[in-house]
Amino acid sequence: MKQRRMLLKPIQNSRGFLTAEFLFALVLCAGLCIVLFSLNFTLSMAEVAQYIAFSTARAHAAAQVDQDKQVEVARAKYKELIENIKFSTSPANGAWFVVSKPDEVEIKGGGVRKDSFSDYPEVEDRIPQVGVRFNFSPRILNIKIAFLGSTSEDPDAGFSTKITGFLIREPTHSECWQQMQSPRYDAILNLDPRLGKLGSNGKNKYVPLEDNGC
Length: 214
Prior knowledge:
Layout: H1 2-8, H2 17-61, H3 67-85, E1 97-99, E2 106-108, E3 131-138, E4 144-145, E5 149-150, E6 161-166, H4 173-180, H5 184-189
Antiparallel strand pairs: 1-3, 2-3, 3-6, 4-5
């Protein structure tokens, strides 16, 4: 009975509480530092990925024999850059940052193919949205922090975004040659559906038109 009374007796001192508070604060601060480091590193690598998108789009924009050659050159440039920077294309190897494989990169150039990014809707009298786009997954952000929990509801899916480089490509040799084989004015009207409203009686009307390079 006496021992039971001693156990129920309120604690008369606070010895050891400071150590517990210090350990809790230390773990919490370490977790926050890990989150900030991961975020800063991710933002830095996102800028590198944006440079890759621009360089790939610039390689795609240069004039070539035909549009297929432009796409081929762009994919080769993308592959070269991710290999030099050591970006991974598969999350299976535990990489911190994962990007799309070269054959999965979206490359759209408009032109005779009339292809553009459908989720960037075209507006009348605006240039079609063309260029290069690929996925960027910062798996370094998929972490679990003590007392804070997980940074993602689905650790396997994690975070992902799209890196895009819009850059209007130059016309190819085949496109220019095909255009010059017909009357120039008719060829200009056929370049873009926006110009169809000119018609045969509208040669004196003004319509904004980006230079096609020919």
